[in-house]
Amino acid sequence: MNMLEGDVVLVLGGGSGLGLGIARHCIAEGARVAIMEIAEEKLAALKPELGAEVLLFHGDVTSVEDLTACRRAVVERWGRLNALIGSQGIFDGNVPLREVPVERVAPLFDELFHVNVLGYFLAARVFGDLLEDSAGAIVLTSSVAAYAADGGGLMYTATKGAVVSAVRQLALEFAPRVRVNGVAPGAIADSQLRGPRALGLDHFKQSDVPKDAMLATYRTLSLMRELPTPLEYAPIYAFLASRHNTVVTGQTVLLEQGALNRAMLSAPGMTGGVGAGLTPRP
Ligand SMILES: NC(=O)c1ccc[n+]([C@@H]2O[C@H](COP(=O)([O-])OP(=O)(O)OC[C@H]3O[C@@H](n4cnc5c(N)ncnc54)[C@H](O)[C@@H]3O)[C@@H](O)[C@H]2O)c1
């Protein structure tokens, strides 16, 4: 079965990482795919692979003008939209609040919330009526950072928490025609998630972290052994974006590979709890 046969799917931030994996998977599932991406060089590099079948749209999701132009291009090409998948995002550099110069707090807030939150809100507004027409779906990207501290700094975790709340509200507002859900991934292999311009960290990318260091950290934190790739996360997005999902709306699916379900008392260095080490009675 092709999950998205004949559907038109727009992926925001599909130039690399998770969004690109989702776009590739949606194509394999029979969708006609558009990618909206701010990094022009990523789109140029993808052109030979994705060809003219995929609509590669250069634009900024925080710009109403760009979103409206993207909408025009989608409608011109296919006349409809069945699913909007939000995957753009930026990171805050995991800098503790007390180390952020006080005059940089507001610019950092604005930068993170514009890309990670406002971009989703504007896109839902600009494409919402097309999705109502097609009885389509919205799928937005949160993070494990929304559920536990230290998946990022204050701004990043707050933006990802905002996505979880927004999914609930948008599901209510778009019901019953459009299903709205979120996905909250844990770590992602091959991510190019960049740091914030407001702290001069925009040239740092997750892909700069040596792969073996990433993997070692991941293995310490999760119950699984290998960093999931974008293509491994993509089928859940495709299902939530598809007409086959008739039962889930307003939910954010947490995909943290057991990071929040780790050993406590039996972890190395722990006491084992009351009774540990006692010989069981016959
Ligand atoms: N990397 C991780 O470990 C991780 C974990 C959980 C959640 N996430 C989330 O997954 C999503 C995808 O991130 P990724 O890790 O694949 O990073 P990525 O940087 O590889 O992908 C994000 C894409 O969004 C694009 N983008 C950024 N700002 C944009 C804008 N204003 N307009 C249009 N496009 C824009 C980027 O250029 C990039 O191509 C993000 O929302 C991120 O917060 C990432």
The domain count comes to 1
Q: How confident overall, as mean pLDDT?
A: 96
Secondary-structure element series: EHEHEHEHEHEHHE
What is the fourth-level CATH superfamily?
A: NAD(P)-binding Rossmann-like Domain
Enter the CATH topology name: Rossmann fold
End-to-end Cα distance, whole Å, is: 56 Å
The CATH architecture category equals 3-Layer(aba) Sandwich
* Low-pLDDT ranges: none
Main sheet specs: 7 strands, parallel
Question: How would you describe this structure to a colleague?
Answer:
This protein has helices spanning 17-28, 40-50, 64-78, 102-134, 154-174, 211-221, 230-241; strands spanning 8-12, 32-37, 55-58, 83-86, 137-141, 179-185, 252-255. It has a seven-stranded parallel β-sheet, with helices on both faces. The chain has a single domain (8-255), classed as Rossmann fold (3-Layer(aba) Sandwich), CATH 3.40.50.720. It is an alpha/beta fold and 282 residues long. The protein has seven helices and seven strands, in the order E-H-E-H-E-H-E-H-E-H-E-H-H-E. The model has no long low-confidence stretch (mean pLDDT 96). Residues 13, 15-19, 36-39, 42, 60-62, 87-90, 115, 119, 141, 143, 185, 187-188, 191-194, 206 line the site of nicotinamide-adenine-dinucleotide. The site of nicotinamide-adenine-dinucleotide (NAD) has 30 residues, from helix 1, strand 2 and helix 4.
